[in-house]
Amino acid sequence: MKRVKKGKKRTLMQTIALSTLVLGTSLLYTPSVSSAYAATNDNNVEWNGLFHDQGPVYDSVPEPTSVQSVTLKFRTFKGDTTGVNIKYYDTADGLFHVIPMSWMSNDATGTFDYWQGTIPASSSQKYYRFQITDGSSSVWYNANGPSTSEPSSGDFYIVPNFKTPDWMKNGVMYQIFPDRFYNGDSSNDVQTNAYTYDGTPTEKKAWGSSVYADSGYTNNLVFFGGDLAGVDQKLGYIKQTLGANIIYLNPIFKSPSNHKYDTQDYMTVDPAFGTNANLQTLSSDVHSTANGPKGYLVLDGVFNHTGDSHVWFDKYNNFSSLGAYESQSSQWSNYYTFQSWPNTYASFLGFNSLPKLDYGASDSPVRNQMYNNSDSVAKTYLKAPYNIDGWRLDAAQYTDAGGGNGSDAVNHQIWTEFRSAVKSVNANAAIFGEYWGNANPWTGQGNQWDSATNFDGFTQPVSEWITGKDYSNNAASIPASQFDSWLRGTRANYPTNVQQAMSNHLSNHDITRFGERAGGDIWKTYLALIFQMTYVGTPTIYYGDEYGIMGGADPDNRRTFDWSQATTSNGAVSLTQKLISIRNQYPALRTGSFMTLQTDDTNKIYSYGRFDTTNRIAVVLNNDSASHTVTVPVWQLSMQNGSVVTDKLTGKTYTVQNGNVTFTVDGHYGAILAQ
């Protein structure tokens, strides 16, 4: 698999009196706030005072309707600039427009000026950047940060009438591979030699044993007995012990394999997982507040392809009706694309067991079956009695007409129609697509997905910084400065409400486990969890990652859950519980601004701020094995001298002195300093 594109590396920041050095070196010295900012109109814009994002402090309406104007704030050092302009591109007329900003106020410390301007309401999408001037000097600023020349990409978004689900922004997701989570009903277990698929029999193995098939069997037909009853019985662990409130299940519909990505029947829960009634019960219990916080249930939508045993295809003559593989006159013959009937047909990534669906024209029967009809797959499960809350879209980039590779105009048409269909049933339903790179083509217009799987902007950079491995367990190490640069560049790919709903996972069913990449060092899992729960996006825990479960590439990343670890006597589980509680306590950690405070490559320190109109929080991460005394420049968050911050992880308090907080942070650990 190709490495995903990283965010752009930042250039040298202009040297200023207080001075943070070049990105990639330590923050060696920060003088007193009271004497540091001798900002003047000297034809030199001081970059370290500039800030804007679309958090609640700087954007009046993060998700505007077409009749809401958007008032923006921009921050500079006090007295440093002679003017700030908003320059925005309006898709309605294809032109740039300039709005001069007016001085608004100073911050509480007297360090910064705030400027304000308003972009008028309309239904058209807009992109904006800022021009900051100090006499003859000009600096540009957009989501990629400051630059000397006017940028051509990376602007902030205004997408009227685009709403992503608040519960997704504010929740914590728990991903479950059902066969490996918990066996709640042994009566439905798939036994050894229960059936064969493509000539290979099933194999039942004992919980906790190797996931690899014994001789004569195959990995995809190894079963352990996990089921929906098991998920239901363990909701107390998920919702109370951990505090997660969104359950995302890998596919649960009838299929011959353990992974269920080769669907045989979309309208029937696989018998090994239970019944449709079990799904109804699980959904009701997830939504209930009797067993913890109100929850949400997301199912895996495998809409790009079916299995070759589906009645529409019926390669193995399982049904009395004629499938597309059996007869060219089949009622489902146009559901698939045959190059040479019957044995040469379009399939997902060349796997013949996964024939691709042909979505054809806009009135194609596949579109109707999958999402358009009132009894379509997508709508059926969103409605009573199932009432699920959203769909995760598997291999969504490949969905198309005619058996191609997707990612074309037809693909985007399909997902635009899918969004309309889903939102017509439940406007608050979530739609997030599987994509391993920049998912902007599906999220940047506000008409397809709400968000995506954040391999590019979370999984990969976190792995490389903390473990020195990419998500495929290959050597790949980056310093803190490059980590920060990567994060900034990938955030700039998306509207803010998409960023806040991106699925941020350390592992999932397709890549090696984070614990494996960390070499079993549980402290690296601690550090990753601290970042995961304080970064922008929806923290997504792949079952077992909360205790550092090990596992290599598929199928080893799908080991059975070790229930002896599922207690707060396990340090990582206890930390996960605490972190989710902290995240729930502070909206700033969910929908607040994100500001880089410090990158120290020598000592492997990374710190950043999360803040809104109520709270200011500095998060400090130490990626070294040794503890370090750090000085965090919290003046950037307008924390006043003499004010107190509390580390929510330890309960210790610290006083802001000379604009900084100084304390010691343990190796491969962190601090969450809140006020």
Automatic annotation (TrEMBL):
Top-rank taxon, per record: Bacteria
SMART domains named in the record: Aamy
Signal peptide: 1-38
GO molecular function, one term: hydrolase activity
Keywords carried by this UniProt record: Glycosidase, Hydrolase, Signal
InterPro entries in the record: GH, GH13_cat_dom, Glyco_hydro_13_lg-like_dom, Glyco_hydro_b, Ig-like_fold, Ig_E-set
Domain (Glycosyl hydrolase family 13 catalytic) ranges: 175-583
Pfam families assigned: Alpha-amylase (PF00128), Alpha-amylase_N (PF02903)
Protein name: Glycoside hydrolase family 13 protein
Species per Swiss-Prot/TrEMBL record: Bacillus yunxiaonensis
